[in-house]
């Protein structure tokens, strides 16, 4: 019942609204809302801003998913080398980004990206490189926003993979070592197969997270400059809650939902085929 109320009901409402021209006036006067059929979807198909946001989100997925997975696995492998006090402190530090408020994080990152007094331009100046307008140049803003998202995602995913690594039976590693397998072969043929479910979970949740990419571009750049960091979710938010085009934004949200469902289904089928 709770799943139906809080999960399915909003989807059904959004699907119904996507076939109307509902706006802020329609909420007060429902009799003015008109059924427009598939007009919102047709408009989406010819909207260059929608496709620009879709392409940007797809680019973040293609680059971000493997990057976060590899970095999180590397961090988890390093933290798994010891259970000493220093490594326990490192685990806490790596997990902090996942539990810290995004607004506080963004203030700090904005100072670090500051063109005149920021840490990154200070480091570039130390090695004789020119300063970069991190959040005001379209190309560097995309990199900066993606960098913050990668930094936030590594902490939680590395803890998930660390838990999986600690569940690998030591007897299997010892047996492989007795058979002459070196550290690399033990890692590739014993450790990775044992944590494949955790790896699959990290890949799937990271992929869905990038498809819903919203927080970092919203707080750091508000989708700018000139729309360079407007992700698909941020595009839908602006059309829905700033331009009051609820019907149009609902149509876009249904497209995003179908995209996420299709990608997730493909990934599950690939995993089953591999297993």
Overview of the structural elements:
There is one protein chain. The protein is mostly helical and 275 residues long. The protein is built from 14 helices and no strands. The protein has helices at residues 2-17, 24-28, 39-45, 48-79, 85-99, 102-112, 119-126, 138-165, 170-178, 183-194, 196-211, 215-220, 232-242, 246-274. α4 packs parallel to α8 (138-165), α4 packs antiparallel against α11 (196-211) and α8 packs antiparallel against α11. The radius of gyration is 23 Å and the shape is globular. The two termini are 34 Å apart. The mean pLDDT is 87.
Gist of the model:
This protein is mostly helical.
Helices and strands in order, then pairings?
Layout: H1 2-17, H2 24-28, H3 39-45, H4 48-79, H5 85-99, H6 102-112, H7 119-126, H8 138-165, H9 170-178, H10 183-194, H11 196-211, H12 215-220, H13 232-242, H14 246-274
Keywords:
275 residues; mainly alpha; 0% strand
Measured by DSSP, the beta-strand proportion falls in: under 5%
Helical stretch count?
14
Largest sheet: none
β-strand number: 0
Secondary-structure element order, N to C:
HHHHHHHHHHHHHH
Radius of gyration: 23 Å
Which percent bin holds the helix content? over 70%
**What shape does the CA trace take?**
globular
In the predicted model, the low-confidence regions spanning at least 5 consecutive residues are none
Through-space gap between termini: 34 Å
Mean pLDDT: 87
Question: From the helix content, strand content and strand pairing, which structural class follows?
Answer: mainly alpha
């Amino acid at each position: 019942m709770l799943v139906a109320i809080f999960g399915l009901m909003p989807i059904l409402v959004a699907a119904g609204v996507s076939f109307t021209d509902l706006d802020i006036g329609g909420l007060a006067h429902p009799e003015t809302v008109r059924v427009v059929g598939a007009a919102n979807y047709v408009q989406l198909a010819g909207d260059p801003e929608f496709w620009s946001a879709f392409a940007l989100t797809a680019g973040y997925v293609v680059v971000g998913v493997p990057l976060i997975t590899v970095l999180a696995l590397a961090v988890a492998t390093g933290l798994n080398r010891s259970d000493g006090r220093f490594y326990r402190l490192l685990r806490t530090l790596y997990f902090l980004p996942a539990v810290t408020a995004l607004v506080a994080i963004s203030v700090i990152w904005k100072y670090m990206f500051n063109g005149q007094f920021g840490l990154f331009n200070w480091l570039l100046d130390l090695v004789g490189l020119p300063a970069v307008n991190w959040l005001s140049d379209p190309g560097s803003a995309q990199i900066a926003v993606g960098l913050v998202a990668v930094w936030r995602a590594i902490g939680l995913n590395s803890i998930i993979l660390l838990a999986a690594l600690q569940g690998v039976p030591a007897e299997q590693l010892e047996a492989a070592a007795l058979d002459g397998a070196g550290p690399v072969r033990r890692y590739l043929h014993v450790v990775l197969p044992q944590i494949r479910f955790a790896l699959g979970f990290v890949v799937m949740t990271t992929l869905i997270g990038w498809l819903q990419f919203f927080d970092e571009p919203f707080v750091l750049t508000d989708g700018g400059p000139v729309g360079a960091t407007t992700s698909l979710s941020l595009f839908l938010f602006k059309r829905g809650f700033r331009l009051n085009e609820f019907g149009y934004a609902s149509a876009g949200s249904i497209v995003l939902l179908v995209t996420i469902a299709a990608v997730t289904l493909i990934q599950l089928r690939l995993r089953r085929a591999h297993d």
